[in-house]
Each structure stands twice: as C-alpha cells, then as structure tokens.
Amino acid sequence: MLAAAMLPRAADAKSCSRQGEECRSSARTRVSARYFDTYINRCNAETNACIARCKTGIKVFVDVFDSPGSAQQYPIDECR
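Given the sequence above, the corresponding structure tokens read:
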C-alpha cells in the first residue's frame, strides 16, 4: 500500500482546494498508471468533503494515501 509520505506535507496549504491540488499533483508524480484515476478521484472527493466539513467548523483535509482509520489530517485555514 502507498505510504502517507506520498502526499506532500501541507504546511503551506491554506484551503481545501489548494490541498486538493497538492493531492492531485502527488498522484500524478507518484502513483502508477494503474492507480492514477483512483487516486485522482479520491483527491477530488476529499476536496469536496473537506469543503463541506470546513463549513461546519472541522477544518482538515484527510490524506487519501493513508489506510482507512489511520489517515493523517492536514489543517485547513479556508474552506474554499
């Protein structure tokens, strides 16, 4: 399985959209062609989920490269 290290650390990511861009960029460079579409779709879905969570006050982007139940969360400053 892919390690959490595959997602760029989000020290600079201030919004869900920005973190989603970093997620997709990581998928483009680090995921094999076989899994590319799966991870792009996960990044897109998490971007939307992040925006929805953020609007309720839960400001995190959940790492799509981690195993379920152990996903790292990245702090988000803006919901967009």
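The two ends are 30 Å apart (CA to CA). Try to locate this feature in the token string yourself.
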